[in-house]
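Bench log. Compound arrived from synthesis this morning; before running ITC I wanted a structural hypothesis for how iron/sulfur cluster sits in the protein. Inputs:
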Amino acid sequence: MLEETLVLFKNIRNPKYDKSLAGYKNTGGFKSLKKVFGMKPEEVVQEVKESGVRGRGGAGFPTGLKWSFMAKGTGKPSYLVANADESEPGTCKDRELMLKDPHLFLEGLMIGSYAVGCHHAYVYVRGEFFPAIKILNAAVDELYADGLLGHDPLGSGFNLDITIHTGAGAYICGEETALLDSLEGKRGQPRVKPPFPAVSGFNGCPTSVNNVETLACLPFIFSDGGVESFKSFGPQNNSGTHLVSLSGHVNSPGVYELRMDVSMKDIIYEIGGGIRNGKKLKGVIPGGSSSPVMKADEIDVLYNFDDLAKIGTMMGSSAMMVFDEDTDVVKLLHRITRFYAHESCGQCTPCREGTHWSRQIVRDFLNGNGSEEKLKRLDRVGGNMLGTTLCALGDAAAMPIQSFVNKFPEEFRKYYATT
Amino acid sequence: MPLLNEFPMPVFQIDGEPVEYEPGEKVLSAALRCGKIIPHYCYHPGMSVVATCRMCLVDVVDLGNGRPAPKLQTACSVDASEGMKIETFNQKVEEGRKLVNEFFLINHPLDCPICDQSGECTLQDYSFKYGSGKSEMDYSKRVNGWRDIGTFVALERNRCIQCSRCDRFTREITGTNEFGMFNRGHELAVDTYTDRPMTNKFQGNMADICPVGAITEKEFRFKRRVWKLKKNHSICTGCSTGCNVTIEHDRNEVFRLKPHENQSVNKWWLCDEGRLTYRKMNEKKSRINQPLGLIGENLEGISWEKAYGAIAERIRELKPLPHEVLALTDTHASNEELFLIQKLLKEGFSSENIFCPFPTWEQSESDFFINTLITTDKTPNRAGALALQIKGDQKNKKLKKAIEGELKVVFILGNPFENELEFKEIIKRTQLVIHIGVFHNSWSEMADVVLPGQFYSEKEGTYTNKNQRVQSTEIAVKALRRTRPEWQIISELLQALGHKSSFESIPQVFNTMVQEAKAFTGISFDKIGGFGIELTKNTKDPGKKVVPEMTAI
Ligand SMILES: Cc1cc2nc3c(=O)[nH]c(=O)nc-3n(C[C@H](O)[C@H](O)[C@H](O)COP(=O)(O)O)c2cc1C
Ligand code: SF4
Ligand code: SF4
Ligand code: SF4
Ligand code: FES
C-alpha cells in the first residue's frame, strides 16, 4: 500500500504539533539555518544545485541554477520573493504549509535569502488567503521578537527583514514578473523577458522568485545527510518529495506528500481511495488546469516532471484533478476556458482575444450550436495562442483546449450530433 | 571616418544583408533604421518595449551559435547579437503574422470607410496584407464605446487595439500619468483616471502614435480624407523651439500640422498649441491682399509699381539723414528677411536704426524632455535676430533715442512692439511709414504705404531656433495672388532706391548673409538639409531663463 513520505509534512502530520516558533524549534527547527550561516553563500547555492530541487511553482526550473544566474557586483541590493500567490486551479499545497507550519517555510525563505544575498525578503501572498496572511504575520513577529530576523540573527552577521505583502487577487500575479510589478505597486502584468528577474527584478534589482513549497524544501536539504536523502526520493532529475493536491471524484481528496517515483494510478487508487461511488475513471488533469488532460488509459505513468513531459503533458504544480465517467468534458473545458478568459491580463493580443474567443466557441457547444467546423476552429484558436504570447498564460489556456478537443472529440460531437 | 573603422560596430544579418547594431539594440530598432519593414504596433522608438502586440514576428534562423530559435520571436524584444541571422519574410513568418492579425480583427469594427484613420492606419495596411478577407468570428464584437478624454483628442475605444502606446506616453513622455489601461483580459480598455479629461499640453501626439483610429485629433477629424493631403516639411513657428513639422494641405487649405521627427529638436513630438497654428495659415479675413497707399484720408489698393514708385519719390523728397530712418521688425521674420531689412537700412540710408522686441523668455526645466519644448517666446526667430545683432527691448537706450529723435522714414516689418502705444503715437506723426506685413494691424492702419507679405507656409525661409539651430521651410500652399514674400519686397525696395544688388532666391540671400554676417560663418544653405544646422559661433541668448516645470495635479 502506497504511503506518504513525510519531509515537508513531518510536523503537519503530527496531531500534537505546535506550529508556534517554540514548537517548531522543539522539532529541530532553525538548525539548518544555523548550519547555513556557517557556510559561504556560494556553497549554499552549490548544495541546492546538488540536491537537484526543481521549482514547485509549475515550471520545474532547477532552483540552484536559477540562483546562480543572479547578477552579482551590480551595486544594487538583491531580493528573494516567495511566491505565495497559489492560484493555479486545483492547487492548494502552499496554503497547507503556510497555515500549518509557517516557520518551516520561513526558515526556507531565510536560507534562500542568505544564499542570494538578500537583506529584505518579501512574501507575496494571495489577497484572499486571510488566515494565511494572519498566521504568517504572527510568525514573522515571533521571529523578530526572538531575534531570528532583523539585525545579526544567531550571531551570523547577516541582516534580514521579511515583509508579508498581500496581493489583490489575480491569477496572473502568480506569474513572477507580474508579481514583481504588483509588488512594486503597479498593475500586475507580465514583463517582457529578457531581462529576467535575476538581472532586473524587483525595482530593477537582481531578484529570485520562488514558490513556497520550493523554499520549504530547504531546511530538509540542509539537515544532516539532507542532500542525499532528498535525491533518493525520486528518479534522477526529479528529486525530493512533493505535495500533491489531489481533488475531484476520488474518495479521499486532499494534499499528500509523495515521492516522485510513484505512479499516478497508485496515487488515485491507493492514496485517493479510488473513484467515488464506484464509478469509472474518465480522465485526469495532471498538473493544474493548464496542463494537457490525460485519458483513463494513460495514467500508468510515474508522477514526476520528466515522465509526464515524456507523454506530452506536465506535472505543473502537482495538482491532480480526477474526473469520473459521468463528467461532461465540454462543461469542464468551458469552466477552464472561462477561468483563463477571466484571468488573462489582456495586454498581449493572442491571449486577450484568444481566451475569450475560445470560451465563446465552447459555450456555443453547450448551447447546442456546435459543429464540426467549430470544433476545428476551437483547436485552431488554441493552437494560435500556443507559443505566441508574452507569458505562459497563453500556453496555459491553449494546452487544455487542444488536449480536450483531441482526446475527447466524441464528447463535443454529442452536443451537435443529437440536435 | 577612421574612428569607425577602428571600432567597427558589431554586425548581424537581416534577410542576408549585414546590418550594424549598437550593443543592446533590439532587432526591430536596427531593422527599422536600415529601412526594413517589419509590421509592428506596440513598439515605439521613444518609449519602453512591452512586446505585447505580438505582430513584429521574425524568424531567427541562427541565434549566432548556429542554432535557430525554437519559435518565431518578436523583433522588438530580441537583442541583436553578433552572427545572428534573421528572416523577416518567409512562409513561417507570414503565417505567424496572419494568425496574430486575425486576433486583432475579430473584435475590431473594421468600418474603415467611416473611420478617420483610414489611409494612415497600420492595422488597415497589415490587414490588407495578412488578412483573410473573411472572418470566422460568429459572435457580436466587443463594445467599449466613446470616452471624452481631453480637449484635443477624441477616443473611440472600439477601434483600440490595446497597444498601450498612449498609456506609456503619459507615463514615460509627459509624466502626467493621466491615462491608463483598465480592466483586464478581453475587457482591457484605455481611459483617463477618475474620468477626468486630460490636461497635458501634448495630447495630439497620442493621436499620432495611436496606430489605429482610436485616438484622433478633434481639430482634424472628419475634415479631409488623409490620402488627399499633400505634405511639406516645415517648422512650427509657434515658439522659439522650431519643432519640425509636416504641413498637410489640400486645395490650398491647410488641415493639420504633424510632427516631423528630428532628434536634435523635437524628437517625435509637437505641442498642441503648435498644432493649432495651422489655423492662422488659412486665415483670410485679416490678410492684407494687395499693396495699399494713402490716397487722401484712405488706404486704397494700388499696384506694386506704383507703391515702389511712390516710396522712392517720397524718400528722394525727404532726404532723410541716417538717424532719421528707423526700422522695427518682429521676430516672425526669417533670417533672410531680417538680413535684408538690415541691409536696406545700411545700404539705402547708412543707418543702423533697426530694432526688434526683446522680451525675456522662459523654458521649463523638467525631467521630461517634452516639457522643454514649449518656451514663452512665441516667435520662431529671435535667435536669428540676435545672430544678426538686431536687438532692443522697449527700454533700450538706442531705440528710445531713435524714436524720440527726428524721424522721417519708418519701416515696419510684421507686428513688432504691439503694445507700445507710446511708440505708435510718435511714429504715427512721421512723414513716411511703410508697413510690410501679412495681416492688418495698428501699424498698417497708420502706414502711408502697405506692402502685403506672405505667411511662412507660403514662402521659403530659414529660422534660427533657441539653440542656434538654423532650419528651413518649404512652400506648402500658394500665396494670395497679389502678395510677395517679404524678402523679395525688401530686395525690390532696395532696387527702387537705386541699388544694384538684386536677390532672386532664398539660397542666394542666405549665402550672401553667410558672407556678411559673422554669426553665420562656416555654413551654407546646402548644409541646412532636413534637420537643420547649428551656428558654430555661439550667439548666446541672455534672455534664456529656466523655470522649474509645474506638475499638473
Ligand atoms: C500564469 C501563471 C501563473 C502562475 N502562478 C503561480 C503561482 O500561483 N504560484 C507559484 O508559485 N508560481 C506560479 N507561476 C510560476 C511563476 O512564474 C514562477 O515560475 C515560480 O514562482 C517560480 O518559483 P519556483 O522556481 O520555485 O517554481 C505562475 C506562472 C504563470 C505563467
Ligand atoms: S499571455 Fe495573457 S496573461 Fe500573459 S501577458 Fe499575455 S495577455 Fe497577459
Ligand atoms: S482603425 Fe484602421 S482598421 Fe480600424 S476601422 Fe479605422 S482605418 Fe479601419
Ligand atoms: S488608444 Fe490607440 S494608442 Fe492607445 S492602446 Fe488603443 S490603439 Fe494603442
Ligand atoms: S512591436 Fe513587437 S510585440 Fe508589438
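What the model suggests: The first strand of chain B starts at residue 11 and ends at 14. Confidence is low (pLDDT under 50) at residues 547-553 of chain B.
ITC booked for Thursday regardless.
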